[in-house]
Amino acid sequence: MVRRQSALSIALGSAALATLLLQLVVLPLLLLPLDLRWAWLLVPIALTTVPLWSLIHEGIHGTLLSDRGWNDRLARVLAVGYGGPFTLLKAGHLLHHRYSRTQRERSEVYDPERTTWLAAARSYYPRLLGGLYAAEIASVLLVVLPRGGWRLLVRQTDSLDSVSGLLFERVARRDNLRRFRLEALAVIVTYTGSSIAYGRHAWLLWIAVGARALMVSLADNAYHYRTRLERPLDAMNLRLPRPLELFVLAFNLHQVHHRHPGLRWHELRAAFAADRDEFHLGWFAAVARQFQGPIPLTAEDVRALPATDTVQQWTASMSGAPSTSP
Length: 326
Description:
Elements: H1 2-31, H2 42-47, H3 49-60, H4 68-82, H5 86-99, E1 109-110, H6 117-138, H7 147-157, H8 164-171, H9 174-198, H10 202-220, E2 238-239, H11 242-247, H12 254-259, H13 268-274, E3 281-282, H14 283-289, E4 295-296, H15 307-319
Parallel strand pairs: 1-4, 2-3
Helix pairs in contact: 1-4, 1-9, 3-4, 5-8, 6-10, 7-8, 9-10
């Protein structure tokens, strides 16, 4: 069984690497010089963004390959092709699991006693429309920051309203910082080299990167938008046709993943059935409703339930018993 799982992951990882190689090397150097119409390949390539992230996500949780060293190596290479340092992506995602729907991470929720809807919207909509991925890829510029600069960055961004300070603190640890710098340099070299290869058609590459930014940013919080606060184990399972569920590696079963983060992607559907879980919305409807914008902290549908309910949820999860979604 372990060999079969590893073989599947290697096959999927190889397909993802081949797709990235096609986008970054083969297309600009071999195909575009023959006929510019080959650029249309960038459309289906852009659509592989979600399964690419899903594979990196498996690597973050150590479930991509059974050997942890090779798991991290494959995930690190995929992350370079994705455009973000794996060390930062991993730290950020694990913080998401810990702080989701708490004061530190509730991107669409604002406190009407401290700010207005319009002020919240000025940061919310740019993040939704590509800003999240843009911040991930822009993080490579931190490669030039000395260790003292990282300490200052941690102090400047530390806040109970954000995970940014915690994220930078984790990346700034000695071994992590060394890995981050190598990964950031790899991203810079990869995308600079690919831009040079595209030459006067480099705008095609960056349109494709922009499409990736839009898809990543739109999908990121769709599983949590307008869900209960102070319930880090909760998310939404979003309905997709089964072929599309397989295509995105079951990432749509997001509540199942939050409650069972150690499961591999192909084990989530069985856990969904075992927990008698449910679908909360369709995937496309959940993405679209985010355009309703920021939600006040006082809104009834996001208001935190009593603390005892949250404790019971954690206890049920740790004991393996199914818990009820909001």
